[in-house]
Amino acid sequence: MAKKRRERRETDGLSSTQEEVTASDSQALKEAQHTVGGSARMSLLILVSIFTCSASVMYLVYRNFPELQDDEMEKIKIPKDMDDAKALGTVLSKYKDTYYTQVLVAYFATYVFLQTFAIPGSIFLSILSGYLYPFPLALFLVCLCSGLGASFCYMLSYLVGRPMVYKYLSERAQKWSQQVDKHRDHLINYIIFLRITPFLPNWFINITSPVINVPLGVFFIGTFLGVAPPSFVAINAGTTLYKLTTAGEAVSWNSLAVLGVLAVLSILPVCFQKKLQKKLE
């Protein structure tokens, strides 16, 4: 009987301890969620402040733009469709030769701004560059703007985006982190491959890369080189801008085939490297 009572006391004590541990874990989880929620709100506030400052800079850029007529002012806006791009191209081409620097700076600043804050519309600016500038300059300009804008988005995420990634994109970020870990030895090729192919949205790559420890230098180079093939297609379409009615017309079956070939070429060095390593082993 004494033995049974002792076992009962031990069992009751163990149950009590388990309940305390469970309650402690639950409380810790609630505190962690509260902390993440608070951090997310603070990060959102900081992000809004940075966006406001950037928008102010954009306003100053356009204040230095040449004086436009009222009907032309209506066309100076971020293009949402091909009609907007055509109207904007008409105005910019009129002033490009006389106010070359102002137009170039405005184009550069707008493109980087859109990329930094993941705002739609950069595809139309890529097409527009083929209409405004010679092909080599247009390609370099789009690649540079894309690389810088994506890198600024990367840095924003590094500074204030982690809590929001943990809160809203945790599961997707973990899955992509596992893929990145498999390609650590050839990360530039992997970033190039992702930029060429539509497997992951660009905004998702920009925001989650600092969270899963993709180096900024690798990220910039991979983005700069990776956006070149799709930009090639968009810029080439820009030479016939006024024949296009939608952004989809800029992409033909031939251009898709070319992008597919380039995507395969970007990943071939990785395959050869793995085979060579196996042979050496």
Please explain how this structure is put together.
- The chain has 12 helices and no strands.
- Helix 5 packs antiparallel against helix 6.
- It has one domain.
- The protein has 281 residues and is mainly α.
- It is globular.
- 79% of the residues lie in helices and 0% in strands.
* Unreliable sequence segments: 14-37, 245-251
Beta-strand segment tally: 0
Radius of gyration: 26 Å
Number of continuous helical runs = 12
Mean pLDDT: 76
- Considering DSSP H and I runs of 4 or more, what fraction of the residues is helical? over 70%
User: What is the end-to-end distance?
Assistant: 67 Å
Keywords: Membrane, Transmembrane, Transmembrane helix
Protein name: Transmembrane protein 41B
Pfam families: VTT_dom
Transmembrane segments: 44-62, 104-125, 137-160, 187-205, 212-233, 253-272
Topology:
Blueprint: H1 2-63, H2 70-73, H3 82-96, H4 100-116, H5 122-132, H6 135-168, H7 170-182, H8 187-196, H9 202-208, H10 216-226, H11 228-238, H12 253-280
Characterize this entry briefly:
It is found in: Membrane. Its main location: membrane. The protein is mainly alpha-helical.
Supply the key terms.
281 residues, mainly alpha, 0% strand, Transmembrane protein 41B, TM41A/B, transmembrane, membrane, VTT_dom
